[in-house]
Specification:
By secondary structure, the chain is of the alpha/beta class. 35% of the residues lie in helices and 14% in strands. The chain folds into two domains: 137 residues, Aspartate/ornithine carbamoyltransferase (Rossmann fold, 3-Layer(aba) Sandwich), CATH 3.40.50.1370; 149 residues, Rossmann fold (3-Layer(aba) Sandwich). It has eleven helices and nine strands. Bound molecules: phosphoric acid mono(formamide)ester.
Amino acid sequence: MINQRRPDGSLRHLITLDGLPRAELEDLLARAQHFVCEPGEQPRANQSLAGITIGNLFTEPSTRTRVSFELAGRRLGAEVVNLEVQLSSRAKGETMLDTIYTLQALHFDMFIIRDPQAGVVAHVAENVAPHVSVLSAGEAHVSHPTQGLLDALTIRQRKGDRFERLTIAVVGDIRHSRVARSAYEVFRGLGVGDLRLVAPAAMMPDAGEFAGTHRFATPEEGLRDVDVVMMLRIQKERMEQAAIPDGDDYFARFGLTPARLAFAKPDAIVMHPQPMNRGVEIDSAVADGPQSVIRDQVRNGVAMRMAVLETIARPRPLRS
Ligand code: CP
């Protein structure tokens, strides 16, 4: 596993949440909470990243992660460039590293990378100049660390910071989900009391993964008395065509309807990282209902990414 830290112990890259100590996770959550603003409020901003240039390199589609990293960087005073990969020389066969070296020569300081291939983000991190940082914006089925952090922030806002008291159910296509893996890492780091995996057999991760969780084959069993329900999309892009279930069948067995949500505690919250497929994994009555915190997750994405960028960046003096 790549070393994400500088020799002084500070966080240089963010590729995984695995092994981050609870105190560091709590510091990130507290800093992010400082940046949260309510709808209609002027967003918080500062110049802590003035002089820093950030490159967003997304080779998989994204709405929330790309836009919120861009807003986060700009609200901290950084210069942010979104590389249109399909219009860049990557489309002519240039390797990821040659693209990175080119951008480094143009004085980029941070790269935010989403890639469908496992290992690419760490490979870039191992090859950049010592002053450069690399952040994962979602890597294959492996990790999506800022999503894990913003999910923890959303739970903390509604349920408080005594994570050991919480029962959380992750429901759906866990096997192919980077969101679930980063959620597992941050929930384990924060000491969540009971973490449940609820999925059909084909969407359950291998037995060696997600140690310490409890597995359930039906939502009716797995949702009983939980505090948090985290729904997942079927990750068709990482499945064999023949293995993709029919949407109606899946909804009948696993879709989160008001009747299924009633198995959870009355004040349970419903989460979804989005994009969501209404009528497949979740009913609109739940997605838009009073227990849904799905839009809070989006709002928290900018705040959490501001906290991460600020924690990782090493501002340098401005030169005129
Ligand atoms: N949750 C999430 O990663 O959304 P995007 O794919 O739109 O970035």
